[in-house]
Amino acid sequence: MNVSVSLELANDKCKGVTIVLGAVAPTIVRAKKAEEILLKANSLDKKAIEEAAQTAAKEVTPITDLRSTAEYRQEMVKVLVKQALEKSWARAK
């Protein structure tokens, strides 16, 4: 599984964001609802990041294959999106 995040900040507010998930579903998935949460947040903080990660996990319909179950993939989406957003946030400051 992999996550890619592109983040643009202005005064600690999210001005642009793209979240893409790979190896979760048959094709790559863009977490548009999670992106919307970050764009609408008053400031980019841990609460907004946590909410976006939870939403991203709800957006996907993961697959089960030889490598992992759908349940595992869904849980890992939360973890990986949160980590990617926190790292991107720290770098963008």
Automatic annotation (TrEMBL):
<dbReference type="Pfam" id="PF03450">
    <property type="entry name" value="CO_deh_flav_C"/>
</dbReference>
<dbReference type="InterPro" id="IPR005107">
    <property type="entry name" value="CO_DH_flav_C"/>
</dbReference>
<dbReference type="InterPro" id="IPR036683">
    <property type="entry name" value="CO_DH_flav_C_dom_sf"/>
</dbReference>
<feature type="domain" description="CO dehydrogenase flavoprotein C-terminal">
    <location>
        <begin position="4"/>
        <end position="88"/>
    </location>
</feature>
<keyword id="KW-0560">Oxidoreductase</keyword>
<dbReference type="InterPro" id="IPR051312">
    <property type="entry name" value="Diverse_Substr_Oxidored"/>
</dbReference>
<protein>
    <submittedName>
        <fullName>Carbon monoxide dehydrogenase medium chain</fullName>
        <ecNumber>1.2.5.3</ecNumber>
    </submittedName>
</protein>
<keyword id="KW-0274">FAD</keyword>
<keyword id="KW-0285">Flavoprotein</keyword>
<dbReference type="GO" id="GO:0008805">
    <property type="term" value="F:carbon-monoxide oxygenase activity"/>
</dbReference>
